[in-house]
Amino acid sequence: MRCQVQLRQFENLKRNLGKEDEKEEEEERFIHFFSKISFSKNNLLTRFTFPLLLLLCTTAQQKQTVVTTVARLTPKEAKRQQRHRKIRSRLTGTADRPRISVYRSNQHVFVQVIDDDAQKTLVSLGTQSQEVKAVIGSEEWKTKTVAAASELGKMLGKKCVDAGITSAVFDRGGFLYHGRVKAVADGCREAGVAI
Fold first, then answer.
1. How confident is the model at residue 17 (pLDDT cuts 50, 70, 90)?
2. What is the pLDDT of residue 56?
3. 67 in any annotated domain
């Protein structure tokens, strides 16, 4: 607290240094003021000197403020995230029955099989991965179809069965259970995973 008061007084003295008529008198008061400042024994710096403080002030003035902008959620995305939070309050994946989480963007679908108890992703797959593109095609428009989501679900189900996962809970991620999201679930069921 004492240090903050002294720094405030320092800033006031520094401001007064800019005046032409009292400049020499203020500089003397400035030097005299900082020659008397001492801090507690717990502080590593026991005494500030004029050149050090002057250097600190000039570097503080040279620092530029960085403005960071945070993108706001659209109302539609905010409602989806709210629905997802509500769904997640009821769904939990375990080691015996993990959670299949789906995220659908405009272009792609991403799926993860998650054990929430261990906080670990067991299997993950998306329409951007090379093994899925080898089956559905590498053209951009092919990744956003229901057929591509169905193939993704089948491949995910096959990976789950290979990993020893035969039953899971389905987390639709706040999206409607319709179209590509439903196709992923149906593809997993076809591969042998009970949802």
1. low
2. 55
3. no
Q: Could you give the CA distance from residue 79 to residue 93 in angstroms, rounded to a whole number?
A: 23
Region at 189 (left for phi over 0; alpha for psi -120 to 50; beta for the rest): alpha
Q: Which domain holds residue 92?
A: 75-191
Same domain, 56 and 143: no
Residue-wise pLDDT for 91-131, tens only, equals 999 999 999 999 999 999 999 999 999 999 999 999 999 99
Q: Please report the sign of the dihedral spanned by the C-alpha atoms of residue 151, residue 152, residue 154, residue 159.
A: positive
- Would residue 112 count as lying in a domain? yes
Statement to judge: residues 29 and 85 lie in one domain = no
Measured between alpha carbons, how far is residue 79 from residues 91, 108, 118, 141, 177 in Å? 18, 20, 29, 27, 15
pTM over 0.70? The answer is no
* 9 and 96 assigned to the same domain: no
